Amino acid sequence: NAGVTQTPKFQVLKTGQSMTLQCAQDMNHEYMSWYRQDPGMGLRLIHYSVGAGITDQGEVPNGYNVSRSTTEDFPLRLLSAAPSQTSVYFCASRGQGDIQPQHFGDGTRLSIL
Amino acid sequence: AQKITQTQPGMFVQEKEAVTLDCTYDTSDPSYGLFWYKQPSSGEMIFLIYQGSYDQQNATEGRYSLNFQKARKSANLVISASQLGDSAMYFCAMRDYDGGATNKLIFGTGTLLAVQP
Predict the structure, then answer these.
(1) Mean pLDDT per 10-residue run, chain A (113 residues)?
(2) Chain B contact for A41, CB < 8 A?
(3) What is the predicted pLDDT for the residue at B103?
C-alpha cells in the first residue's frame, strides 16, 4: 500500500520558473492538503481540498495554485518561483471522521535560487 | 484564532527514562482534536497519538501517552522508557471541528528530542 506519494523528492528552480509538485494517494481519502515546513516555524497549511472539485486556501496560499480533478491527485503549482518559497513541502490526506489522522507523504525539498 | 505553543525547542533525555514534551493550545471551539507527530531525521511525518476534546480518559499508544488537562489547555506527550530511536523532532497539532468540512491542522513549532545512551 503506497499511501501518499509525492514527486519529486528534490528540486532546484531558478527564480521565475514554474513547477508542479505532484501528490497522489491510494487510500480513497476525501481530504487532502499541502503544507510547507520552514525552520523554526513548524508546518503551515498552504491549500486543502475536501473532495474532488473543491479546494480552499490555508494559512499561506499566496504564490501557489491547486486543483483537485480526481480523488487521488492533488497537485501544487508554483506559478513564478521566488526564493521565499524555498522549503520542504508535504502533502497529506485523511479519511472521513474527525479523529482520523493525517497521512503524510515523504516531502519534497525545493530550493529556489 | 487557533494556536499551538511548544515552548521547548530542544530536550535531552537519558535512555530508558521518561520524558514529557509540552504543548499548550488556544481555541474558542468546544470541539477539537489534538495530535502528536514524530519527524525523524529522515524527514517523514509519523502519527503517534490522538486526543479528542470530549474524551474522558487520556490517550495511550504503547510507550506514548497524552497528559490532557483541558482546563489548562495543555496536551503534553509523555514517552516512557526512552529509546535511542526516539531521537527526533516532535510536533503537537490541533484540528478544530467547527461543524464544517475542515481539514485545517495547526502545528506547533516542534521540540527536538535527543536520547542519550
Answers:
(1) 89 96 95 92 90 92 96 96 96 84 93 95
(2) yes
(3) 61
Residue B97 has pLDDT above 80, yes or no: no
B-chain residue closest to A106, CA distance: B44
Angstrom distance (rounded) from CA B71 to CA A83: 42
B28 forms bridges with which residues in the sheet? none
What confidence score (pLDDT) does residue A100 get? 80
One-letter amino acid identity for B53? S
Q: How far is CA A101 from CA A46, B41, B104, in A?
A: 18, 21, 12
Residue in the structure block whose three cell numbers are 486543483: A67
Given CB atoms, is A67 within the 8 Å cutoff of chain B? no
Q: Which three cell numbers stand for residue A78?
A: 508554483
Mean pLDDT of chain B: 92
CA distance A22 to A9: 10
- Give the dihedral of Cα atoms A89, A66, B35, B117; nearest 10 deg: -10
* A48 interfacial to chain B (CB closer than 8 Å): yes
Across the interface, which of B4, B33, B47 has its CB nearest the CB of A98? B33
